[in-house]
Structure formats: structure tokens, C-alpha cells
């Protein structure tokens, strides 16, 4: 028999990586990570009123919705198999004050949405954020006193807000304001109020990122914000600090962990999952979404392929799921 060994065989020791890539069926057989509809959490924006579907200019394809329209949209999400939504309110400016007091209102916009969605679509999970930034007149996530975001008073307020949200039917409380001690305080308060089954998804590593701009437009806080959030969000340069933050949240009783933003922090996603083993999620934030949409609309990239690729990257980095504004588009694509 003629020896057909090639120089490449001698170089590689007869190991050819392309054998497993040669056809669609082999590529499918050896694929290591997969994105499914079960990986998706859909963030939505709620506004007062009825019959409202209002586009967010900096987030093409994303709308602010009144509660009735949100209920309709969430029904569609549930029919597509999306497991959970995350709600964010854009309340009337007249209701915003220095301490974010409307966050404590049992009948505020976010709690109205929770009750309506839970009644109409009981088979989808509802995740609610207790940060004060949608409720404050200064756009910060906590109480502002003489130029300082005060920690302990903020925690006292968000604890009460968390109980109100759980009373309204929230399944998971997601504290995003990065105050020290808030996970433990919320857990103790929820249990004391009889909400032992309400989970906590900690924004364990929320960075002081420049990627949040379109989100702030969506909840109308961008023009309100006085100063920055560097005293309570994590410095983007600090990975070890992010791990310490996460460790504290785990010790205080977090059930799930979140990394925010997403794609610029894949290393943190990996470290969090490897280090703690809890269900770990990435939030593909508004700026990430807007970049992909803008480049796609200009014809510079294939938006659908980039959308799927970025979400698959989170799975490869160890994430159990992703909060993404692409959730409905992805769910429809997967259904096809």
C-alpha cells in the first residue's frame, strides 16, 4: 500500500483538529455549549397609563410599555418558553424625591405590574429590582445626603421595598444598588415577613460602567443624575474586589449571582461560577445591545449572528443564563 502520510501528519503527530469540523453533523456532535430558551431572562420597561407602547430611541426594538401592554408581551414571552422577566419602572417625575419614597408604595408602578403579570401569566417568573434610582429625583441608587450616598439608610429603605415587592408577587428580588450588607438584610426581612420562598439574585458584581447610558434613558434617570456612581459600584479595573463582593453576598444568603455588564466582564463570569458554584447570570446591558443594533442597522455586521454569538459566549464563560433585551428575538429564532 502506498504510504500517503503527509508532512502535516508528521508535524501534528497525526492529530488533525479539523476532522471534527468537517461536516455539520460532526460539528453538532462535538459542540460544547448550547444556547436554549431556558437561558433567557427578558428585561422590560414599564410606564404609567394604558395602551402605551413607546420606543426607546437609543435601543431600537425595545419599548416602554404600560402595564396592560406589558401583560400582553409577557404572555407572548411565556408562549415562547422564556422562563422569567425582569421589570424596571419609569415613573412620573412628580413622584420622584430625594429618598425614593415611592419605592415603598405597595401600589407603585412596579408592584402594579407584578400583580397584573402574575395574575395573567402565572407560569413565568418575575424578577424585581429594589434599587432606588427609578424613584429618586437625583438618579442615584440610594439616599443622597450632603453629596454622599449613605449606606445604612438606603439599606433600610430597600429592605421595606423588597417586602412590598414580595407581597405583590415577585418571585426573585434582585438588589442592584451595591450597598454593603443589603443581601443579608433583605434575606432576614423576607423570612420574617413569611417570604422564605422568595429568592435573591444578587447583582454581585455591578461595575461603574459606561455601558448603562441607554438604560438610563429608558427609565428617565440620565438627565437627573448628579455626579457619578463610583463610590458604590465596582471599579472596572478590579477583579479581586468583585470576587470579595460576591463572597459577601454568598455568605449573606444570595441564591443566585449576577455579573453586570456582561461581555466586557466574561473573565468575572468565569471566576464567579468557578469560585462559588451558585447559579450565575450575566446582564447583557443596554449599551451592549445598542452597539450591536447600531452596527447591524448600518450594515457593518450581521446582527442576528452577532446576537447569538455573544449570548453563546456567556454560556462558554460559565453562565447559567443571560438577562438580555434580545430575549424575544432569540426565543423566536430558536423556535424556528
Automatic annotation (TrEMBL):
SMART domains: ALAD. It comes from the Bacteria. Gene3D superfamilies: Aldolase class I. SUPFAM superfamilies: Aldolase (SSF51569). Pfam families: ALAD (PF00490). GO terms for biological process: heme biosynthetic process. Its EC number is 4.2.1.24. The active site is at residues 206, 260. GO terms for cellular component: cytosol. GO terms for molecular function: porphobilinogen synthase activity; zinc ion binding. Keywords: Heme biosynthesis, Lyase, Magnesium, Metal-binding, Porphyrin biosynthesis. Homooctamer. This is Delta-aminolevulinic acid dehydratase. It comes from Ferirhizobium litorale. The gene is hemB.
Amino acid at each position: 500500500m502506498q504510504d500517503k502520510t503527509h508532512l502535516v501528519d508528521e508535524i501534528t503527530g497525526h492529530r488533525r483538529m479539523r476532522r471534527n469540523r468537517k461536516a455539520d453533523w460532526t460539528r453538532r456532535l462535538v459542540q460544547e455549549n448550547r444556547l436554549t430558551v431556558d437561558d433567557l431572562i427578558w428585561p422590560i420597561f414599564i410606564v404609567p397609563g394604558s395602551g402605551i407602547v413607546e420606543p426607546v430611541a437609543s435601543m431600537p426594538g425595545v419599548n416602554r410599555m404600560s402595564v396592560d401592554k406589558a401583560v400582553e408581551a409577557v404572555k407572548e414571552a411565556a408562549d415562547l418558553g422564556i422562563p422569567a422577566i425582569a421589570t424596571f419602572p419609569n415613573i412620573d417625575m412628580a413622584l420622584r424625591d430625594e429618598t425614593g419614597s415611592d419605592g415603598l408604595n405597595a401600589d407603585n408602578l412596579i408592584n402594579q405590574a407584578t400583580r397584573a403579570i402574575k395574575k395573567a401569566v402565572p407560569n413565568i417568573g418575575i424578577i424585581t429590582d429594589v434599587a432606588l434610582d427609578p424613584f429618586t429625583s437625583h438618579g442615584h441608587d440610594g439616599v443622597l445626603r450632603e453629596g454622599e450616598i449613605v449606606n445604612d439608610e438606603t439599606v433600610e429603605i430597600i429592605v421595606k421595598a423588597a417586602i412590598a415587592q414580595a407581597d405583590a408577587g415577585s418571585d426573585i428580588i434582585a438588589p442592584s444598588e451595591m450597598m454593603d450588607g443589603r443581601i443579608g438584610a433583605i434575606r432576614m426581612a423576607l423570612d420574617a415577613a413569611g417570604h422564605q420562598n422568595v429568592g435573591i439574585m444578587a447583582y454581585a458584581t455591578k461595575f461603574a460602567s459606561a455601558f448603562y447610558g441607554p438604560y438610563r434613558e429608558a427609565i428617565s434617570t440620565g438627565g437627573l443624575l448628579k455626579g457619578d456612581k463610583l463610590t458604590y459600584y465596582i471599579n472596572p479595573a478590579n477583579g479581586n474586589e468583585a470576587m470579595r463582593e460576591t463572597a459577601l453576598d454568598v455568605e449573606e444568603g444570595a441564591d443566585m449571582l449576577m455579573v453586570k455588564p456582561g461581555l466586557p466582564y466574561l473573565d468575572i463570569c468565569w471566576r464567579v461560577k468557578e469560585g462559588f458554584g451558585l447559579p450565575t447570570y450575566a446582564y447583557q446591558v443596554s449599551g451592549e445591545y445598542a452597539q450591536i443594533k447600531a452596527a447591524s442597522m448600518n450594515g457593518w455586521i450581521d446582527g442576528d449572528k452577532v446576537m447569538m454569538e455573544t449570548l453563546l459566549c456567556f454560556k462558554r464563560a460559565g453562565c447559567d443564563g443571560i438577562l438580555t433585551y434580545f430575549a424575544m428575538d432569540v426565543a423566536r429564532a430558536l423556535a424556528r
